[in-house]
From TrEMBL:
InterPro entries documented for this protein: Nod_factor_ABC_transporter
TM helices/strands, residue ranges: 22-44, 56-76, 108-128, 140-164, 224-247
Keywords, ordered alphabetically: Membrane, Transmembrane, Transmembrane helix
PANTHER family named in the record: ABC-TYPE MULTIDRUG TRANSPORT SYSTEM, PERMEASE COMPONENT (PTHR43229:SF6), NODULATION PROTEIN J (PTHR43229)
Ribosomal protein recorded as keyword: no
Organism placement in taxonomy: Archaea, Methanobacteriati, Methanobacteriota, Stenosarchaea group, Halobacteria
Recorded superkingdom: Archaea
Record's protein name: ABC transporter permease
Organism: Natribaculum luteum
Amino acid sequence: MSQLGLLVRAVVEKQLILLRRYWINTITLLVTMYVFFAMIFYGGQAVAGPAIEESLDGIVVGFFLFTATTSAYFGVAGNVMREAQWGTLEQLFMSPFGIGRVMAVKSVYNVAFSVIVGLALLGCMLVTTGRTLRLDVLTVVPLSVLAILPVVGIGFVFAGLSLLYKRIENVTQLVQFAFVALIAVSPTDGREYLLALPLSQGSDMLREAMTDGTRLWEFPLADVTILVVVGLAYLSVGYAAFHWLVYRARKLGVLGHY
């Protein structure tokens, strides 16, 4: 097996061990998101009655993306915080792969795991609401991954900030509220500036794919290009910012301090 293959296997094995060891935390994440959705669904039915049915598909798709987004975001930011608290962060720097390649592999795992978590919750939401959506895997999975990429970049920034400023969990938590707003708004209707922000374009395209059945290759090339460029831009800037913040933390001698 190649060196990269060994790294991937080691990362996956470690993450699976952590999932099994802290399984209550994993299940709590899913249950919390589902209860939150159920409160909106049943509360909305009680308050708005049949009116909520018109926007229910959009709410389900939005929750699916929000679940995958928060899972990926906290996965990236939380990884570095936990490694620093456990005192194993320095070992990652000393590995033959370097911290950059290790974090890149962990990010790929986090994105894949986040999409799986989102799809699991999506199944629960569809059963609860009795709705049906078009789930073309060749469309939904690539769009979900591309929509999440900017969030991974933001996660890298907060991961780096946590090395400098340590206790920033409250700020990290606040960012997820911005994700809700970005998922809810559409970049159409004279708000094209939202195309440059994370999640809005991906959320809009996922809604169209899952409610209208639009396939990936049926979207305008410009829309797909914007989604790819925005995703890679945020990811690249976030990754570069992480490296600079790591350099800054090492220079100040606060890398392993907690």
